[in-house]
Every structure is written in C-alpha cells, then in structure tokens.
C-alpha cells in the first residue's frame, strides 16, 4: 500500500471523532521534529544523522539517554544506530520495525560491510506485535539507552516498553533510516514528552 500524496507532503490531516464531536489532529505529536523521507531501499546508501547535534536528546543523572522519533507508513521501516557516519567496518544495530507485513519487529546486529542480500546478522530480539505502523498517523517512539547496553523502546501513551533488548556495544552516535518496499517517513530529534513546552509559533514540523 502506498502512502497518499497528502500524507507524504505532510499537509495537516485532521480526523473527525464522532463520539467527541471534535476534530483530532493525529500529527500534533510531530511538533518540533525534523522530517526525513526515505526514498532509498534497504541496501542503498543513505544518510546518517549525528545525534550530538540534536536539541532534544537527553541524558539523566543515572546515565540513561533518551531520544524520541516518529515513523509514518504502512510497514517495513528500518531504524539504524551506529558509531560512525561512513565506512563499513563499524557494527550497526537495526530496529526492523513492523516487518513481515506489520506483524513482527526484529532487532538485528551486523557489520555494515555485510549489508547485502543474503547477509547474515545476529538477532537480538524478536517481537510479535501486530499493526505497529499506520499510514494515517505516526507512531511515536522513545528510545532509552542505559549505560550497560539495555535498550527499551516505548510508544507514546504507554508506560511499558514494547521492545527491549541488550546490546553492550550499542552506539547511538549516529542514526539512519531506510525502507524495504514501501515509502516511509521518519521524524527525528523530536521533543521528549515532558519537555514539549514550545509555543506553536516556535515549533516546526
């Protein structure tokens, strides 16, 4: 299923909730985020963003680092974390979100030099959670990285992570995004929920 042009263009989309008789804008959660449209395929070269330049990433007194991202699309999104922006000797940790037709999410670890059809990877987690992604509203995710390599991913509106894995060599210095077979729009450096205090005039999509 392809994304509607109106969604790809991020024209504000409001849905009407008959029960409350008031409009609901599913894109309000994107205020303050940066947008990346993933046109390249799974094996293509794509940009990596330096998280040290992010304004909304936060590390607390316990050394837990949190960042918030959004994903909009039908299925098959790949979120990649690595230690360097270029070069193929570094390892990479990938959240393969809503794969197998939006029925399963895998956590994959492999060398970027092995990123080719038929390459093997180490599976750090397999989560059978259906319908994570939606073409009509973004799924907002808070990624929390602990110093011991424990990583959790929690959706907005939920208190319990739906993804949890351990990767002692996990690096979040750079983050990249790509798709498998259908368009996916990503939103990164999003304000953490407790810090979303900006006025509408100061926020940006």
Strand content: 35-45%
Class from secondary-structure proportions: mainly beta
Give the H and E element order: HEEEEEEEEHEEEEEEE
> What coarse outline follows from CA principal-axis ratios?
globular
The percentage helix is under 10%
Question: How would a textbook summarize the main sheet?
Answer: 7 strands, antiparallel
Rg from Cα: 17 Å
Mean pLDDT: 84
Uncertain segments: 4-19, 195-205
The rounded distance between the terminal residues' Cα atoms is: 24 Å
Topology, number of strands: 15
Helix tally equals 2
Keywords: Signal
Pfam families: Methyltransf_FA
InterPro entries: Methyltransf_FA
Domain Farnesoic acid O-methyl transferase: 45-191
What would your notes on this structure say?
The chain has 205 residues and is mostly beta strands. The chain is 4% helix and 41% strand. It has 2 helices and 15 strands. The strands form 3 sheets. Strands 3, 5, 6, 11, 12, 13 and 15 form a 7-stranded antiparallel β-sheet that branches. The chain has a 6-stranded antiparallel β-sheet with strand order 4-14-7-8-9-10. It has a two-stranded antiparallel ribbon with strand order 1-2. A hairpin with a 4-residue loop joins strand 11 and strand 12. The radius of gyration is 17 Å and the shape is globular. The C terminus is likely disordered. This is (northern house mosquito) hypothetical protein. Keywords: Signal.
């Amino acid at each position: 299923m392809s994304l509607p042009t109106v969604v790809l263009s991020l024209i504000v989309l409001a849905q009407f909730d008959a029960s409350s008789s008031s409009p609901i804008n599913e894109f309000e959660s994107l205020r303050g985020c940066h947008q990346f449209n993933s046109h390249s395929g799974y094996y293509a070269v794509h940009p990596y963003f330096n998280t040290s330049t992010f304004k909304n990433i936060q590390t607390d007194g316990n050394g837990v680092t949190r960042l918030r991202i959004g994903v909009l699309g039908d299925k098959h999104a790949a979120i990649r974390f690595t230690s360097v922006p270029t070069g193929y000797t570094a390892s990479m940790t990938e959240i393969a979100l809503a794969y197998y037709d939006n029925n399963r999410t895998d956590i994959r670890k492999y060398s970027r030099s092995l990123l080719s059809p038929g390459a093997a990877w180490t599976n750090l987690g397999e989560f059978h959670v259906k319908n994570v992604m939606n073409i009509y509203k973004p799924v907002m995710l808070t990624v929390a990285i602990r110093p011991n390599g424990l990583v959790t991913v929690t959706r907005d509106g939920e208190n319990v992570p739906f993804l949890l894995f351990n990767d002692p060599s996990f690096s979040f210095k750079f983050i990249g995004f790509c798709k498998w077979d259908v368009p996916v729009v990503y939103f990164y450096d999003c304000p953490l929920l407790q810090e979303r205090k900006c006025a509408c005039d100061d926020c940006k999509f």
